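User: Here's a structure from my thesis project, written as structure tokens. My advisor, Dr. K., wants to see whether a designed sequence matches the one we expressed. Can you design one independently, without my sequence as a hint?
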């Protein structure tokens, strides 16, 4: 009931682009760890980490997770347990999944699988993680490691096979396993083969996604490394300099490993964009505080007024273009 009313209020707030939100968020990111064990060339937790030395790094502990989640219940419906880092680095991950489940919140992880063990597979099934996204951008070690630098494709194949086997043994429906491939120029001709390979092994879904430059620096690197695919459907979408209507300001929160609160996934860790701390601050004082109100007004009126707060909205590197816009990277 709470959730139905909350959703209706959310729809009204979004369609009118109200300055105050009359609902609570329905989905959230909880960054389990913003450290990573791979060196993906466009990622600020990976190869670009040296340019982001000012970002504090760590793993979210259960206390922070629980205190944060409790503030979003009972309206919150689903969470992503990752943002920029590798969630399997977090030793308290499984108690967090269990706690979310107990509170009827769906859970999703995205992982590079390098830390996967049979023991981890068992816990993913036992704690009833809803969905596991496996990041794998190639069908041979040569193509795969062009982006996932430091990764090992055989380890992914072994891990996924093990998890499928274990699910079968326990007759478990979850976690749903989704193989995710970012489409780059170097792998775009492998898409059919990739899909055939993973479907034959028994994964639940194969998902090809649009690449993102992730940042302006990432754009230069992508062009230098010739990453942008020819297929326009998968070319990065970067409406730099535009302000888009954004549902995230009404239905989403991004929570960093230390409880710091951001309006969306992109500025996570950059303190100038931080709007509060979900654990130590009062929820409504932040959710309808000056910073959020400024942001919502900015996107509605397309100009900045009164109180000023630094946002990334002008530089949004959103991966998915909205229907009403069609500006691509070039
Ligand atoms: C930054 S990763 C962190 C989670 C985990 N370490 C992983 O590799 O899945 C979060 C998600 O971003 C995706 N991702 C990474 N680089 C990307 C890019 N340049 N464009 C689009 N998505 C990207 C990953 O595939 C993953 O699903």
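Assistant: Designed independently from the structure alone:
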């Amino acid at each position: 009931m709470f959730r139905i009313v909350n959703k209706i209020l959310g729809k009204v707030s979004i369609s009118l682009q109200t300055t105050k939100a009359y609902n609570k968020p329905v989905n959230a990111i909880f960054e389990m760890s913003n450290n990573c064990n791979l060196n993906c060339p466009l990622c600020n937790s990976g190869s670009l980490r040296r340019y982001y030395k000012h970002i504090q790094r760590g793993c979210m502990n259960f206390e922070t997770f629980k205190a944060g989640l409790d503030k979003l219940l009972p309206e919150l419906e689903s969470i992503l347990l990752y943002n920029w880092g590798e969630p399997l680095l977090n030793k308290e991950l499984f108690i967090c999944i269990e706690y979310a489940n107990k509170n009827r919140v769906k859970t999703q992880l995205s992982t590079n699988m390098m830390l996967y063990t049979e023991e981890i597979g068992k816990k993913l099934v036992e704690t009833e993680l809803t969905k596991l996204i496996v990041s794998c951008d190639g069908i041979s070690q040569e193509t795969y490691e062009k982006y996932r630098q430091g990764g090992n494709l055989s380890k992914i194949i072994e891990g996924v096979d093990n998890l499928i086997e274990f699910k079968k043994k326990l007759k478990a429906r979850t976690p749903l396993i989704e193989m995710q491939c970012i489409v780059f120029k170097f792998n775009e001709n492998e898409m059919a083969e990739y899909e055939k390979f993973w479907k034959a092994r028994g994964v639940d879904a194969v998902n090809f996604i649009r690449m993102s430059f992730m940042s302006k620096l990432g754009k230069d690197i992508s062009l230098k490394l010739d990453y942008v695919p020819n297929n326009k459907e998968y070319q990065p979408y970067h409406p730099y300099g535009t302000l888009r209507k954004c549902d995230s300001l009404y239905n989403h929160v991004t929570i960093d490993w230390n409880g710091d609160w951001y309006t969306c996934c992109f500025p996570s860790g950059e303190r100038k964009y931080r709007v509060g701390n979900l654990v130590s601050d009062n929820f409504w004082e932040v959710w309808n505080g000056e910073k959020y109100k400024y942001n919502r007004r900015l996107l509605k009126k397309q100009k900045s007024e009164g109180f000023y707060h630094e946002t990334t909205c002008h530089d949004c590197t959103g991966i998915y273009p909205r229907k009403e816009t069609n500006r691509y990277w070039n």
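When you compare it with your expressed construct, this may help: Residues 36, 40, 42-43, 82, 84-86, 110-112, 133, 135, 180, 182, 209, 211-212, 214, 319 surround S-adenosylmethionine (CB under 6 Å).
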